[in-house]
C-alpha cells in the first residue's frame, strides 16, 4: 500500500493539471455540501438546548389557514389533560425600559408563566427562577436577567442578585441570572418577568394573547397530543365561538417552520452539485485509467493480479481524496462564517450554526462516497483488463473501447441532468427577485428613518395622557432642523400586522363580516410621512379624539370588496366587540400598503386594512417615522435628543431606515437567489468541463475517421457539425431526465417565488436553452481541432 501511495504521489506530481482539476472538483463538492449542511443541521436538526427536547411541543389555535395565539383559558384547559401533557406554560414578548446606571435601554424581554423554566428544564446560572405563586397580583415585582445583559450592563457582578432596578417606571428585584445559551423565546434574551393574568383572561373576555408550550407526559406521543387537543378544541367550539381547532407541533418543527422550504431547497441544490462533482471526478479518473490501459496489460503480463491492480487504483485516488476533502472542510468553515454573517434577520437558531461533530461525520460520509466514485472506474478498468485485448484496443472492432466511450457519454448526460434543476431554480428565483424590485409597496421608503419605543404606563397612566405625550413628542421631532415630517404608527409596514374582527354595515359586496382585518393606529400626517396615496376623503386630525365620533380610514381593498361601485367615505362598520362594538365612520380611503413579507403567502389577516386615530385607539408600543429633507441617517442623534427632551427616561430601539426594512424583507430571497445562482454557475462549469473532456477525447480517438471524411470531400462545416452534435446530443439526453427532476422539485419552490409559477415554461425553456448553448460552446473548441486535421497525416496516424 505504501508503495502504491508513493507511486500515486509521483503520478500526481507528473500530471499537475489533472491533480488540480480533481482536487478542486472534490473540494468544491465537499465544501459547498458541508457548509449548507452546517446551516441545515444547526437550524433544523440540532436538538434544542433543553431537557428531553423531543417531549416539548408548541400549541396554536387554527382558524382557516391562519395560526393564532391561544388564550390563557386555553392553557388552563390543556393542563387538565394530565395523561397527555405533564405541564403547560404560556408567555408573550414584552418591552421593558431600563433606566438608571447609564442611558435608558430597551430590553428584549418576555412575560412568562413561572412554570416555563421547569417545562423547558432550565435552571438559573446564578440565583433562582420564579416560584409558582409569583404570578399572583400584588406580589413583589421580580425579574430574571440574561447573561449578556448581566455582563454588559452590570459588569458580571454576582452581587447584583437581590438588587432592585427600575423597569417601565417600577422597581423590580433581580432574583437570578440565566445561562449564556438560554435565549428563549427567540425575541427575548435579556430579561424575563412573571406573567400576571387579569381576571378577564380566565373567563375568555380576552382571547388569543399568548404563545403556549408544553411538555408531553412520560409515554405520551405527539399523535396522541394532537388527537386530544383536537377533541378539546371541538368541545370548546360548541361553547365559545371562534375556537376552530388546535395544532400541536414539536417545538423544533414549529421554530423552523418558516425557513424549512428554503433550507430544504438549498440542501437539495447542493447535493445535486455534489453529484455532478462526483460524476466529474469519476470521469476524470476513468479517462486517466483508459489512457493507462497498456500499463495495466503489461502489469498483468508480468504477473500482477487484478486485485493488486484494484488496490493500486484505490491508493492512487487516496491523495486526491485527502487533499480535496481537507481543502473542502477549510472552505466550508470559511463559508459558514460568511453565511452566518449574511443570514437574514429572523433566521431561527442562527447561534447553533457551526462545524459540529455530526457535520464532520456527514463530510466524511460524502468523502467516502466521492472516493467510491473516483475509484470505481479505474477498478472496473483494472478488473476487466486482459493483455491480449489491450494490445488491440485501438482497433475499430474494439467493443470495450466503445463501452468505455458510452460510459463517458452517460456520465456527461448525468451531469447535465443534475445541472438543469439548479439552472431552472436559479432562473425562477432571479425572476422573483426582479419582480420584487418592481412591486408597488404602497409607500415611499426613501429618506425615512424609524425608531421604536414603548410608553411607560406608570408615568402616563391614562390613554389621554399617553396621547398627549405622543403629541408633544411628534411636535418636538418635527421641530428638528432637516425633518420634513414625522408621525407615529403602532406597526411599520413589512413587519407584520395586528388583526381584529370587523363587522361592516350596509355592505353590497360578497361579505359584510371579516374576523381578521389588519388594523393600525396612526397620528395625523402618517400617510404623508410614508407617502401613502390618499384616494378619497381625508386623513386624521387632532380633532378626531375621544370627544368626537369614532372614525377610521380604510384601504382600497376594503372599498372595492365591501362597497364595490360605491363611495366608501360616509359608510360605517362596527369596532371589535372588546372595544364596545361601537359604530365607526369611514372618513377616507388610502392605497393598499404591503404589511408583511412579500413572500408570505398566508396572511395573518384578510389583507384588508383599517386605520384608527391615535386619540381614539391608543397603543402603548409605537414606531416613530421621520421623513428628512436630505439623508435620514445624520438626523437620528438629533431626533433621539428631541425625544429625550420630552421624556429623559424614554428608550428607543430598532433604529433603522425604512429602506433597510424593505431590504430586510427581501433578504431571504436575495440570499437564496445568490446561493442558487452560484450553485447553478458551478454546476454549469463542471458540466461544460465534462462535455469538453469527453468530446476532446472522442476527437482524439476519431482523428483517422475525420481525415478520411475530409479526403472524401467533407467540409469543415460538416466536421464541426458532427463534433458539436456529439456534445449537444449528450446534453439533450441529460436534459430530458433533468426536466423531470426540475418539475419534481417545483413543489418545493412554491413558497419561494413571487410573480412567477414554479413550473413557468419560459424559465424552464430558458434554462434548457442556456444549457444547450454551453454544451455547444464546450463542443466547439475540440471541433475546431478536428477541422484542422491533415488527411495525409490522419491516414498515417496508426
Would you mind describing this structure in some detail?
By secondary structure, the chain is an alpha+beta fold. It has 24 helices and 22 strands. The strands form three sheets. It has a six-stranded mixed barrel with strand order 3-4-9-6-8-7. It has a six-stranded mixed beta barrel with strand order 14-15-20-17-19-18. A hairpin with a 5-residue loop joins strand 3 and strand 4 (105-112). Helix 2 (16-45) packs antiparallel against helix 12 (357-383), helix 9 packs parallel to helix 20 and helix 20 packs antiparallel against helix 22 (716-745). It is elongated. The two termini are 37 Å apart. Residues 393-400 and 601-605 have low confidence and may be disordered.
How do the strands and helices of this protein lay out in sequence?
Layout: H1 2-14, H2 16-45, E1 56-63, E2 66-68, H3 72-79, E3 85-99, E4 105-112, H4 116-120, E5 126-127, E6 142-145, H5 147-154, E7 164-167, E8 170-177, E9 191-194, H6 199-202, E10 211-216, H7 222-237, E11 246-250, H8 251-255, H9 260-291, H10 293-301, H11 306-342, H12 357-383, H13 387-390, H14 399-438, E12 448-454, H15 463-478, E13 483-489, E14 499-504, E15 513-522, H16 526-530, E16 534-537, E17 551-555, H17 556-562, E18 572-574, E19 583-590, E20 609-613, E21 621-628, H18 636-646, E22 653-657, H19 658-665, H20 667-701, H21 703-711, H22 716-745, H23 761-787, H24 791-795
Parallel strand pairs: 4-9, 6-8, 15-20, 17-19
Antiparallel strand pairs: 1-2, 1-10, 1-11, 3-4, 3-7, 3-10, 5-8, 6-9, 7-8, 12-21, 12-22, 13-21, 14-15, 14-18, 16-19, 17-20, 18-19
Helix pairs in contact: 1-11, 2-9, 2-11, 2-12, 9-12, 9-14, 9-20, 11-12, 14-20, 14-22, 14-23, 15-18, 20-22, 20-23, 22-23
Amino acid at each position: 500500500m505504501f508503495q502504491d501511495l508513493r507511486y500515486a504521489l509521483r503520478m500526481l506530481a507528473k500530471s499537475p493539471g489533472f491533480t488540480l482539476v480533481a482536487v478542486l472538483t472534490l473540494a468544491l463538492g465537499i465544501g459547498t455540501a458541508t457548509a449548507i449542511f452546517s446551516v441545515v443541521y444547526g437550524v433544523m436538526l440540532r436538538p434544542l438546548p433543553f431537557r428531553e427536547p423531543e417531549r416539548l411541543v408548541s400549541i396554536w389555535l387554527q382558524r382557516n389557514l391562519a395560526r393564532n395565539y391561544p388564550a390563557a383559558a386555553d392553557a388552563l384547559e390543556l393542563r387538565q389533560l394530565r395523561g397527555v401533557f405533564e405541564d403547560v406554560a404560556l408567555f408573550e414578548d414584552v418591552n421593558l425600559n431600563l433606566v438608571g446606571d447609564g442611558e435608558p435601554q430597551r430590553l428584549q424581554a418576555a412575560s412568562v408563566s413561572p412554570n416555563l423554566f421547569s417545562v423547558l428544564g432550565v435552571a438559573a446560572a446564578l440565583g433562582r427562577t420564579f416560584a409558582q405563586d409569583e404570578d399572583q397580583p400584588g406580589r413583589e415585582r421580580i425579574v430574571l436577567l440574561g447573561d449578556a445583559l448581566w455582563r454588559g450592563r452590570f459588569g458580571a457582578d454576582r452581587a447584583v442578585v437581590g438588587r432592585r432596578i427600575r423597569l417601565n417606571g417600577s422597581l423590580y428585584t433581580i432574583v437570578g441570572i440565566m445561562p449564556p445559551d438560554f435565549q428563549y423565546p427567540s425575541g427575548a434574551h435579556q430579561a424575563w418577568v412573571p406573567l400576571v393574568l387579569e381576571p378577564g383572561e380566565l373567563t375568555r373576555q380576552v382571547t388569543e394573547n399568548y404563545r403556549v408550550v408544553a411538555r408531553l407526559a412520560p409515554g405520551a406521543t405527539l399523535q396522541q397530543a394532537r388527537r386530544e387537543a383536537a377533541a378539546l378544541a371541538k368541545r370548546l367550539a360548541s361553547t365559545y365561538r371562534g375556537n376552530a381547532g388546535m395544532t400541536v407541533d414539536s417545538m423544533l418543527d414549529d421554530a423552523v417552520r418558516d425557513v424549512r422550504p428554503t433550507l430544504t431547497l438549498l440542501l437539495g441544490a447542493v447535493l445535486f452539485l455534489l453529484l455532478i462533482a462526483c460524476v466529474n471526478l469519476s470521469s476524470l479518473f476513468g479517462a486517466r485509467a483508459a489512457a493507462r490501459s497498456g500499463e495495466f496489460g503489461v502489469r498483468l503480463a508480468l504477473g500482477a493480479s487484478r486485485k493488486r491492480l484494484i488496490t493500486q487504483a484505490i491508493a492512487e485516488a487516496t491523495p486526491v481524496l485527502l487533499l480535496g476533502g481537507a481543502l473542502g472542510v477549510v472552505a466550508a468553515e470559511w463559508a459558514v462564517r460568511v453565511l452566518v454573517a449574511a443570514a437574514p434577520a429572523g433566521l431561527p437558531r442562527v447561534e447553533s450554526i457551526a462545524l459540529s461533530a455530526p457535520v464532520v461525520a456527514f463530510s466524511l460520509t460524502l468523502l467516502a462516497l466521492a472516493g467510491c466514485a473516483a475509484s470505481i472506474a479505474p477498478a472496473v478498468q483494472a478488473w476487466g483488463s486482459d493483455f491480449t485485448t489491450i494490445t488491440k484496443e485501438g482497433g475499430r472492432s474494439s467493443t470495450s473501447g466503445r463501452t468505455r466511450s458510452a460510459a463517458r457519454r452517460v456520465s456527461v448526460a448525468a451531469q447535465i441532468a443534475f445541472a438543469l434543476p439548479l439552472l431552472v431554480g436559479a432562473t425562477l428565483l432571479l425572476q422573483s427577485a426582479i419582480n420584487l424590485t418592481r412591486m408597488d409597496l404602497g409607500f415611499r421608503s426613501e429618506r425615512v428613518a424609524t425608531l421604536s419605543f414603548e410608553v411607560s404606563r406608570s408615568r402616563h397612566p391614562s390613554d389621554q395622557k399617553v396621547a398627549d405625550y405622543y403629541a408633544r413628542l411628534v411636535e418636538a421631532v418635527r421641530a428638528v432642523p432637516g425633518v420634513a415630517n414625522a408621525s407615529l404608527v403602532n406597526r411599520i409596514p413589512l413587519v407584520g400586522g395586528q388583526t381584529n374582527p370587523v363587522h361592516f354595515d350596509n355592505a353590497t359586496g360578497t361579505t359584510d363580516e371579516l374576523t381578521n382585518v389588519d388594523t393600525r393606529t396612526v397620528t395625523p400626517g402618517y400617510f404623508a410621512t410614508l407617502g401613502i396615496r390618499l384616494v378619497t376623503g381625508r386623513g386624521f386630525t387632532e380633532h378626531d379624539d375621544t370627544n368626537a365620533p369614532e372614525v377610521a380610514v380604510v384601504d382600497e381593498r376594503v372599498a372595492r370588496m365591501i362597497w364595490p361601485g360605491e363611495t366608501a367615505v360616509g359608510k360605517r362598520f362596527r369596532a371589535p366587540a372588546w372595544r364596545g362594538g361601537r359604530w365607526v365612520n369611514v372618513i377616507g380611503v388610502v392605497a393598499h400598503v404591503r404589511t408583511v413579507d412579500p413572500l408570505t403567502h398566508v396572511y395573518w389577516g384578510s389583507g384588508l386594512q383599517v386605520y384608527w386615530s391615535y386619540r381614539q385607539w391608543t397603543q402603548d408600543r409605537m414606531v416613530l417615522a421621520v421623513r428628512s429633507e436630505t439623508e435620514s441617517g445624520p438626523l437620528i442623534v438629533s431626533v433621539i435628543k428631541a425625544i429625550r427632551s420630552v421624556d429623559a427616561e424614554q428608550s428607543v430601539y430598532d433604529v433603522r431606515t425604512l429602506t433597510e426594512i424593505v431590504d430586510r424583507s427581501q433578504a431571504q430571497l436575495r440570499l437564496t437567489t445568490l446561493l442558487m445562482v452560484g450553485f447553478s454557475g458551478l454546476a454549469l462549469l463542471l458540466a461544460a468541463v465534462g462535455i469538453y473532456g469527453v468530446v476532446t477525447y472522442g476527437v482524439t480517438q476519431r482523428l483517422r475517421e475525420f481525415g478520411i471524411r475530409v479526403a472524401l470531400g467533407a467540409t469543415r462545416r460538416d466536421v464541426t457539425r458532427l463534433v458539436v452534435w456529439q456534445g449537444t446530443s449528450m446534453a439533450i439526453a441529460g436534459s430530458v431526465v433533468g426536466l423531470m427532476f426540475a418539475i419534481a422539485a417545483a413543489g418545493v419552490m412554491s413558497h419561494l417565488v413571487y410573480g412567477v409559477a414554479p413550473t413557468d415554461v419560459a424559465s424552464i425553456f430558458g434554462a434548457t436553452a442556456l444549457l444547450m448553448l454551453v454544451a455547444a460552446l464546450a463542443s466547439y473548441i475540440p471541433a475546431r481541432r478536428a477541422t484542422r486535421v491533415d488527411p495525409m497525416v490522419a491516414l498515417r496516424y496508426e
